Amino acid sequence: MDRAFFEQLAMPLFDQLYNHACWLTGDRVDAEDLVQETYAKALKGFGSFAEGTNLRAWMFRILRNTFMTTKTGLAARNTEYLEDDEVLSDRVMAHAITPELLLLRSQNEQAVFAALESLPVNYRQIILLSEVEEMSYREIAEVLDVPVGTVMSRLSRARSGLRALLGTNVGQEVR
Amino acid sequence: MTVCEQDHEMLAAYLDGEIPSDRAAMLEEHLRTCTACAAEVANLLSVRRTMRVARTRFTPSADFRRKIQSQVAPRRPGFRVFGSLSLAVAALAMLVLVIFWMRQGTVRADAYREVADLHVGDLASVNPYDVISSDRHTVKPWFQGRIPFAFNLPEFAGTEFTLLGGRLIYLHQQPAAQVVVGMGQHKISILILQESGVFGSAFPVSERADTKSAFNIETWNSQGLRFFVIGDAEKAGIQRLAQFLQSANP
After folding, report:
1. Which residues touch B207 (CB under 8 Å, ≥6 apart)?
2. pTM score > 0.80 for this model?
């Protein structure tokens, strides 16, 4: 039956979705609610899911859309439209960090996690989709419902932002 | 540091495997000569390596996994309530059945024991038959007026069975006919009584073979009469006699 098929396909994504939800919400209880709602919606909409298409991207998209209706998500949405026109001053900053320092810093996972957590949620998510979930630009575009070109530019800005944050932290410590 | 005009977005896309192979080849060529871009690639790679750890940073609890699993698992809504209820009902029904079956089993075992006792008692008796005859036309009429029912005996002459005689017995407070048939050195009892109450209900309606304390027993119901064929003869012999009798009492 459909339901058994859904279980078979969707349950293996459980750990990834939960991890991703935690990164998005920053709270385990919120993450559980988010994941539960995602599965409920996915189960309900499974009939409309076309077999052979990317279930993982589909589920992540449901998770993201659900997240966007939460308080944290709504706050993120308000800043989203700015981002593509945003002039990133931190790119300059990122260039000022020496590769050696960054390498040293990025090997400390706590520092990277801290930087990732303080990154705006849209940047955080696209980095997670790319680096952690290892999704292709096309998959990410599907999850975020944006053109592939936007994925590329947003991902680039997100990475610059992350490095800027890492650099800032490094600077503070060195000082 | 030499300022390079190379698009850093392109470097990231290159690492992400998202640019066409011809562009990738051009970039690789560039990376060999541009230290700034090589450093950029190194940075991207080191961040990426660290980022892998973020994959397993948060792991769900077993409880939450079970919760989602049960939410997703194929089962009817409200299964928990109805499921446990129907489970209880099923368990109760099972219990009733088992008790009934055990009771029936006890009754049946008692009945078999009684039948076997009668058979043995007859064999041990110095006066085993009320009517001694190998002629069914003698044995059968003898029972008339002694038992409240009639039955037929097949013609034993020319078969492996020999009619030895008959007597009136009481089985479970009911008058019954006992006909003894010889098969080789074996004596086989045929017990016939009216099917009634608890005693009869312990037995299956259709033919049934059983083995009790080295005796083979066949029993069946035919037109309100309960037949038993019991003896220490081989099972097949008992069955043949049973079939023989059934043919005379369809």
Report:
1. B218, B219, B220, B242, B246
2. no
